[in-house]
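Service request form, structural biology core

Requester: graduate student, group of Dr. S.
Request type: structure prediction, single chain
Budget code: on file
Notes: please return the result as structure tokens.

Sequence provided:
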Amino acid sequence: MLRARIPLVLIAAAIACATARLQAEENKEQAAVLQALRAHFETNTPEVIRYKKISNYGETISGTAPTKEVVAREVELFQQALKAGMLKEPSEEVLWLGQNLVVHNPQMGEAFLKALHEAGDCKSPGLGDALYVASIALGAAGERLAVAELDSANLERRKFWAHYLEMFALYPESCDPILKCFKKEGDDGIKVSLLRSLIKVATPKSLGIVKSEIESAKNDASQAAAIFVFVEMAGFDGIAYLETMKPAGPNAEKEKSEGLEFLKRETNEKKKYPFSMQNDDEFAERFADLNGSAIIKWLGKEGYLDEKKEPPALSPGKKKELLALLADSKGFGLEAVKAQLYAAVEKEDEPALLQIRAVGFFSPNKFAVSRSRTLEIMLRHLRYEK
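Core staff response, request fulfilled:
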């Protein structure tokens, strides 16, 4: 007995109808979550745009912390957004939510960032910046997620995250996995980014891999990048090696020449690295009257806002007070005392400096990147010279 056959066109139509129903249900669910997010942010500040609205510099993390109920609501909204598939092409409200979780509940913030890594396309409008900011603000956990992307089979994802690491990598734990990925990476552009990332995560002990790349580089551009990194990491002691190495082409020749000129001008036997730090005098002029700011009050009391007097050196006790205040103020005030802090930091201060860099991106503003660069120099000073 022959069984009746259902025409393929009917099967296709049935599948199309079922897909449409599911899509409609998903759209309805997403619309409901989006409405809830908008309602939430009518009364709660999205941290990532805090300084795009009317706000005061010098606000503290402790002074603007939300209630437990607000944080619980943000966790609930994240779970709803995740269930509704809203991280595939996240709206700005979803991204606002993610940054708030990073700030208010780091454990859930890491879960959000992981979900965004898994679901999102790095090239989606607005997503790249959001990933950068959240990754920095999450600290070591955010950088671990970035480094893990170097194993992706997707070339564009590896490029995106290699560039991120070139610009913002800062945690020593990233050094070994970056080197591992560097050795197996086939894309020259990514290899250059990974080499450059070593400047801020490695120590001079890692110079061997850089010298090896200089000597085995297959093209002019790769060798030029390796020479640049060597100059930054080796400092004065690298002059002798640079003078004897043979460039592979014009770019490497230019990098060698400029590197030698730089090291001979800026370093010497006693000052092996060109690190230095000066206070920003304009900061005092602009912000000294913010009497409601805890960090400004402290800087004024301790004599760091008086342009007519030499700022005092930091004692260990005052340094501890300052680091705590800077962490609570999201780095605000660093500009007025960075020279004294640079002179006073020791190896045991590294976790505090890393924390200040991370919180500086909780509510990013136009000062966030420059403060990050200041802290990077302090950390390199500790890792290279202490």
